[in-house]
Amino acid sequence: MASSRAPTCTPAAAADGGIEENAMAILDPSGIKDSRDLHEDRAAFLEAVRSACLAANNPSAPSWRMYDGVFQVLQNSSSLELAVASFHLLMELGKRYPRTYLTDSGGHQSLVVAKESWLPFLIGNGSVSNEIGGNARSSDHLFDPSRFSLLIEAMVGPTNATDDDKNEIKAIENMILFQYLVNTLETDFVPRHIAYKESLDWVIFRESLLNMLLGSRKLVFKSFVKNCMLLLNQYHPEAKDAVEGVPSEEAAKSASDLDSSLSYSLLESERTLVSLRKLFVMVMELDLIKKEADTLGLTSRADGVRNPIMEVILDELTYNISYLSSFFLAFVEGKWKLEIILQYFSKYCGKGPVRTRRSGNSQEDLKLESVLSFFLTATSAKAIVKKMGTEVAQLLLAHAYQVCLSVQNDTSDSTATTNKIGASLKEISCNFIYAFQNLRKVEPNIQISPFEKEALFTAATLTRRLKNEEK
């Protein structure tokens, strides 16, 4: 029986190393031939860790081996039930025992990083510390930058109907694993971001997991971004922001009873899409902070050189126009979505009416108001669409207008986005309608998508209402 090899440990057993022994049994399952017994052993181990570190009256922080054992169950469970249970346990442990967090110190928030804590990533110099007792930690299952990139590459391309159940389950487990890795990056990034805003100390981000991961020579950044964009395009049709929650263990258990795990796979695809969005936004924020640090002279050669993610995205969207629609449907973060659109237009718009400050060649001054000014006459609209195409122009303008509408409904962090818009909603709505009218004059037979029709209808309705309110 499984209990003879992996007895459920009590909190007291955790103190004397009982859970560590249980972990070692999972890490080295030699001699175990019955997969059912192995499944029960791992389930018992997860319950033991939960009991000792979360549910006990006096819970203790998990040891390195305990964390590592749970993470290996997530990767090698061959069971949706165990994969989701280990995912939940890792997420709860991360919340209870954070590695990176803020503390109040003298009226301001100080960053605390417990560098000795376990991590799913193997980055930096790649050295592996010795475990208590002198035994070397096994790191083959941890994620260095190269393996993180390979995970995303493996996720590109949905599992087809001819694949066996094992491969289908593995595809879902990869998505859950990716969600956990992005969550780890996010829980390290967010407190650093808060601390940086107060101190403007670039070292805070130089030592961040995300910066070290993406700055590694083991990761080919352009290929990494392109594969992330492929995943965005792959997952966007069923994407809903309402499913940002983590997968439930009950859902995983019931999935095994379904004739097909397609529904559960779609659910995890939606959640993976949310994680992809978070990853994109974090990298964009990191690039913006590094640019600011460069301006202040805070960076050095040790920080390395990497193309900003915005440049890679723009290149990919420019040379693969078929990606445009799905990318902007999937990537809904207004601030960055508008920035991508404005920089896309900057490749084709002249400098004259766009840049009115002394910044010269800087693209920072380009605003949506300026972009729309290029479409206020049929002549100027023709000059632009001759370079970028009418369909592309319509699509980008419609998505930019959608951002304008979202800003009206979300005032949490809209100042920067409002500045990028550069005009009132009434002015933008009027000019948006004029732009489409002039695009129709340039190409009378151009097709307008349902999304663009809806944007035009909204603009016309708002224009009438806002004009009536002024009377």
From TrEMBL:
One of the record's GO molecular function terms: transcription cis-regulatory region binding
GO biological process, one term: negative regulation of systemic acquired resistance
GO cellular component terms, semicolon-separated: nucleus; Smc5-Smc6 complex
InterPro entries, alphabetized: SNI1
Superkingdom of the organism of origin: Eukaryota
Signal peptide: none
Stated name of the protein: Negative regulator of systemic acquired resistance SNI1
